[in-house]
Amino acid sequence: MPDTDALETLRAALEVFARERDWETFHTPKNLAMALSVEAAELLECFQWLTPEESAAPDAKRRQDIEHEMADVLLYLIRLADRLGVDLYAAARSKIEINRVKYPVERVRGQARKYNEYEDYAQPDDAG
Amino acid sequence: MPDTDALETLRAALEVFARERDWETFHTPKNLAMALSVEAAELLECFQWLTPEESAAPDAKRRQDIEHEMADVLLYLIRLADRLGVDLYAAARSKIEINRVKYPVERVRGQARKYNEYEDYAQPDDAG
Amino acid sequence: MPDTDALETLRAALEVFARERDWETFHTPKNLAMALSVEAAELLECFQWLTPEESAAPDAKRRQDIEHEMADVLLYLIRLADRLGVDLYAAARSKIEINRVKYPVERVRGQARKYNEYEDYAQPDDAG
Amino acid sequence: MPDTDALETLRAALEVFARERDWETFHTPKNLAMALSVEAAELLECFQWLTPEESAAPDAKRRQDIEHEMADVLLYLIRLADRLGVDLYAAARSKIEINRVKYPVERVRGQARKYNEYEDYAQPDDAG
After folding, report:
1. CDD domains annotated for this entry (chains A, B, C, D) (predicted)?
2. Is B2 helix (H, G, I), strand (E, B) or coil?
3. Long-range contacts of A63-69 (CB under 8 A, 24+ apart)
4. Residues A8-56 pLDDT 10s
5. Cα separation of C109 and C72, whole Å?
6. Distance, C-alpha A20 to centroid of its chain
7. How far is Cα D1 from Cα D68, in angstroms, rounded to an integer?
């Protein structure tokens, strides 16, 4: 990946991929969001019955599965962004800034309970 | 974003973000995969009752929500990749090549029915 | 199903099923909620690329898949309820009453736009 | 709930609920499967950052949230079954029998590793 950005390279590749197959009809934002959600669940499934510790050290086969599912999530996300004209990188930068304000270091640092409570409190906004 | 890559910039920012808050304990791969899956569903919720056509032209408020949820998905995905040492870009490139073989143009082009059947064929045991 | 209730019959069968296999260890509420979420996505996958109309008339093979996935969702839900001591039927009755107040007939009746807006408005609570 | 079955009582109540609001149009199987999947994720969110042990003993507020989300999952599942003419109880009974064959006691009993491997074996193409 020399000059251009990773996200843009993938976006362009996916656009060609869908056009070659005449899949634009199926790629409505609603359908793409469904597909993304299905892939996220397939990723989750890789960790389903593992302990937290086991989840940090998957064996080679599981690791391969995990990488494929993570790739699927990213690909559908980039494709959805393309169909809606969303700048993913800008959106992500902006969301980090929002989170910085929402979870100030001095308030949430190193406190499991606080973290959970804050999540609870934060949920309405998260769903917004 | 001048010299460095978007994904790497975001990865580094999230690493600092979590370290400052002592959230590494919570950020097991299993928990991050759950969080990613929850955010994917919140994204899906934005499109839930829309027709396919409406989903392609969300109003300004909904569009803002969609961008935030897409950002959340990307951020958790990058964070998960970092915790597992996965190169997201390489994984995505490799998955596109796999899909190229799995869905050859001459076989699936412009055929809604074929597309559905192929999906079925590709994930025959999913429903088991 | 003669004298006893469907939900109780299934609950009892699942309890025996898990005990016989020594699966209680894996069946923490957190893991069961994950499993349920994965099954819900597998159900969603059955409808993924269908039009709304097609989704109402699945062919025989797809219909079989759908029934299996719906069963999986119900089974994990009942198992989760059992582990937490939740009375599913009472919870469902109570939620219908809450929804009756939340979505008054005269306000939401037959209005697609209102429905969507209301959903939007309702989201913060839904996530609560 | 004296004479009739819990699932049938809820089904009938939901049918009236949707008809009173003219929501049948929105309640395509595809949309209902999406809604169910979103509710399953909201349920998952209740357990997101908890340890396995904490997830088994939620405090009163969280428990209330969990019950509401479980109810939402059940209600959408029953509504979907109604729209497709699926007998949920029969489907669940039949799925338990399938699982009995798929996970024989002597093979999977009390073995975490076997359990995981078997899951792998059972859904080999999921990660594809």
Report:
1. NTP-PPase_RS21-C6_like (cd11537)
2. coil
3. A63/B84, A64/D127, A65/D126, A65/D127, A66/B29, A66/B84, A66/B86, A66/D127, A67/B86, A67/B91, A67/B94, A68/B91, A68/B95, A68/B98, A68/D127, A68/D128, A69/A39, A69/A42, A69/A43, A69/D127
4. 999 999 999 999 999 999 999 999 999 999 999 999 999 999 999 999 9
5. 33
6. 26
7. 20
Q: Do C123 and A127 touch (CB under 8 A)?
A: yes
ipTM: 0.88
For each of the domains in chain A, give its residue range(s) and CATH number, in order of start: 5-86 (1.10.287.1080)
Task: List b or e across A53-78, with b for residues whose CB sees 16 or more CB atoms inside 10 angstroms.
Answer: ebbeebeeebeebbbbbbbbbbbbbb
Entry field: residues in chain B: 128
D34 contacts in chain B (CB < 8 Å): 44, 47-48
Q: What is the pLDDT of residues C10-47, one digit of tens each?
A: 999 999 999 999 999 999 999 999 999 999 999 999 99
A108 — pLDDT class (breaks 50, 70, 90):
confident
What DSSP designation does B85 have?
T
Scored b (16 or more CB within 10 A) or e, C9-45 reads: bbbebbeebbeebebeebbbbbbbbbbbbbbbbbbbb
Specify the length of chain A in residues.
Answer: 128
Which pLDDT does position A109 carry in this prediction?
82
Using a CB-CB distance cutoff of 8 angstroms, which residues of chain C are in contact with residue D98?
A: 68
Q: Indicate yes or no: CB of C35 within 8 angstroms of CB of A48.
A: yes
- pLDDT tens profile B97-127: 999 999 999 888 866 444 455 554 333 333 2
Question: For the whole model, what pTM was predicted?
Answer: 0.89
Using only the alpha carbons of chain C, give its radius of gyration: 18
Tokens of A65: 């599965």
| Nearest residue in B to D24, CA atom | B49
Collapsing DSSP to helix, strand or coil, D95 comes out as: helix
DSSP assignment, residue B59?
-
Pick the residue with more confidence: C108 or D110?
Answer: C108
C-alpha dihedral, C114 to C112 to A30 to B54, nearest 10° = -90
CB contact under 8 A, A50 and D127: no
Would you state the pLDDT for residue D63? 97
Instruction: Count the alpha carbons within 13 Å of D107 in the hemisphere toward its beta carbon.
Output: 11
pLDDT tens digit sequence for C43-88:
999 999 999 999 999 999 999 999 999 999 999 999 999 999 999 9
CA dist B92 → A76, B33, B70, B103, D121 (Å): 10, 17, 17, 16, 25
From the number of C-beta atoms within 10 Å of its C-beta (0-12, 13-18, 19+), residue C59 rates as: exposed
